[in-house]
Amino acid sequence: MTTKKKPTIVWFCAITCNGNTHSLLSANSSRFELLLNSFDFIYHPSLTIDKSLEDILNQEEKIDFLLVEGSISSNKDFFTINEDSTFNHLNKLASKANYIISVGSCASFGGVHAKFIQNDDICSINKAINKDIIKNLKHNIINLTGCPVHPEWILQTLFTLKTYGKIAIDEIGRPKELYGTLAHHGCTRNEYFEWKVEGNFGQKEGCLFYSQGCRGPMTHSSCNKILWNEVSSKTRIGMPCIGCTEADFPRNDMLETKKNIGIPHEVPLGISKRAYLSMSGVAKTFKIDRLHKKLME
User: 36, 100, 162, 177: which has the fewest C-beta neighbours closer than 10 Å?
Assistant: First the structure.
């Protein structure tokens, strides 16, 4: 009786802080064990020892799942791995892959490196990979955005693809199941948001939207439904959402709510500014003593 071959995973680290690797290692231990038992994790520069990157580049066998962490550059004077550019390495690996997953916001959209490093050719993997290679993939490139990405999002995506061969994605390549709701959904501070009771950074109570720059109402993410370490999230500990799953991350002046004559420049998704201001005006006329008392405790 022959044993069914497990699908292979290659994890390529390009220009990265390795935050997504650290995130993967913080996954639920039983889930991570299931990952290793269900897939053949053949290469990661920090986690595997049996094969080198050169071995993977030279092999003829296909790669079932190519996971890429970090942004890409073709400039050899800027950043190289084994004396070659991340651009060349990526295209060689991509030509062998059946599925390609961008792990984190840098791989998905260029992220921090594309914004702050003065090098115009730093980009996402979607822009870097030859279009003829993309046409031969079994699926569109999947973007798992986040800085870093939630480890469970990686696992769920891999298991869905392994089981069904496809996954529903939104207009910028994110799995709908994971990014179809907002970080605001499931936030424990929603009642404060509704009654316009503002808190401060680090406080256990109060909304962080009006003066602390929280992007929860505009950010597609399941952080407050699939909790980090199964217990918490940024907003639950008093940290404003910084919108790291969106294509425009990182923005200027994070942790600040841009306003015009006291009116937020951006309002929550799905509602017109006029309607939002009308509702906010009504809510501010009420003082909910119970909420203010909790805020002061």
Answer: 36
